[in-house]
Amino acid sequence: MFDPAQLAALAAVHRRGSFDLAAAELHVTPSAISQRLKALEETAGTLLIRRAQPCTATPAGLRMIRHHDEVTLLERTLATDLPWLSPRPATLRIAVNADSLATWVIPALAATEGFLFDLVIDDQEVSQDWLKRGEVAAAITAHPGPLQGCDTIPLGALRYRATASPAYMARWMAEGVTAASLAAAPGLNFSDHDRLQEIWVERQIGRQSKRAFPSHRLASSQGFVDGCLAGLGWALNPEALVAPHLASGALIEMVAGTPLDVALHWQFSRLTAPALAPLTREIRAAAGRVLV
Questions:
Q1: Is 234 a member of any domain?
Q2: The pLDDT of residue 18
Q3: Is residue 164 in a domain?
Q4: CATH code at 7?
C-alpha cells in the first residue's frame, strides 16, 4: 500500500509542474512535498518525477498517478453508497476538445455534482492519448477505440461550417473557392493537430501536396468566430456557434451546403465507470441536444 498523501504530492507536482505550486494546492510547504515524494520514490524503488522546468512524471510516476486517481474516485463511490459518510468533492481530470467545451460540455459539467473538474483542452484527434497515458479518467475523442481497460460511448457528430465575412469573401474569394484563391486567402488554424480546415479544402479542391492555404494560429473557439467576423480569416466553425451570424448575414458559408461532421465519443476507464456514471449520463444528454 502507498501513502495517499505521498501519491497526492506526486500527482500535484506533475500536474502543476513545480514543487511550490504543488505545495500551494495541497496547503503544505514545498519541503513537505519534497519529503513525501522522496519517501514514495524510496518505497517504489524508482524515479517518479523528472526534476526540471516543468517537473513531469516518469512512466512509472504516471502509472502511480493513475492509481491515485482511481482510488480517489472509488472512495467517493463508497462514500456515496454509505449515507453516514460525507463524500468530499473529488477532482476529476478529463480531456475535452475546445469546440465541445464551447458548445455543449459546460452544461453537462454544471449538472453533475460532487466533482471539481480539471479540464485538459486538446484536439479530439489526440485527446485519447491522455487517456492512454493514464493522465485523465475520461476523454471526449474522435477515436471510437477499442482502448484497453476503457469503455466507449458514441455521442454523435459536431457539425462544422466553413465560414467567412461577406467583405472577406469579396476580397479573397471573388472568383469563388478555388485552389488559387485558397492559396492566397488567410485562414485560421487552432494548432498543429488541427486538420479540419485541410480536410474541408481537400473535399472542395482535392488533396494537396502541402498545406493549401496560409493561416493565422489562434487557439480559441470563440476567437475563430470573432476572427471570421472581423475578416481576419476563414475557418471551420461549429454550427452551434455561428448559426446566429449565418442567419443575420454577418457570416456566410463559403460553399453552400458543405458541412463537415466530426464524430465524437465519450471514453472512460472501466474501473471507475460507476463513479463517473452521473457525469456520463449528463454528457450523453448534453450531446444529444447539440450533436447530429
A1: yes
A2: 94
A3: yes
A4: 1.10.10.10
pLDDT digits (tens, 9 = 90+) for 190-247: 998 899 999 999 999 886 645 568 999 999 999 999 999 999 999 999 999 999 999 9
Give the domain range for residue 174: 158-261
For every residue of the chain, DSSP letters joined together read: ---HHHHHHHHHHHHHSSHHHHHHHHTS-HHHHHHHHHHHHHHHTS--EE-SSS-EE-HHHHHHHHHHHHHHHHHHHHHHHSTTS-PPPEEEEEEE-HHHIIIIIHHHHHT--SEEEEEEE--TTTHHHHHHTTS-SEEEES-----TTEEEEEEEEEEEEEEE-HHHHHHH-TT-S-HHHHHHS-EEE--TT--HHHHHHHHHH---SS-SS-EEE---HHHHHHHHHHTS-BEEEEHHHHHHHHHHTSSEESSTT--EEEEEEEEEESTTHHHHHHHHHHHHHHHHHH--
Domain assignment present for residue 85? The answer is no
For residue range 151-177, list pLDDT tens digits in order.
999 999 999 999 999 999 999 999 999
- Confirm whether 79 is domain-assigned: no
- CATH number of the domain that residue 248 is part of: 3.40.190.10
8 Å CB contact between 279 and 148: no
Give CA–CA dist 82/18, Å, rounded. 37
What's the whole-number mean pLDDT along residues 11-32?
93
* Closest to 70 in 3D by CA, of 291, 268, 288, 287: 268
Residue where a domain stops, chosen among 62, 82, 106: 62
Radius of gyration of the chain (CA): 22
The domain tally of the chain equals: 2
> According to the model, what pLDDT value does residue 228 have?
98
**What mean pLDDT, rounded, does the chain reach?**
91
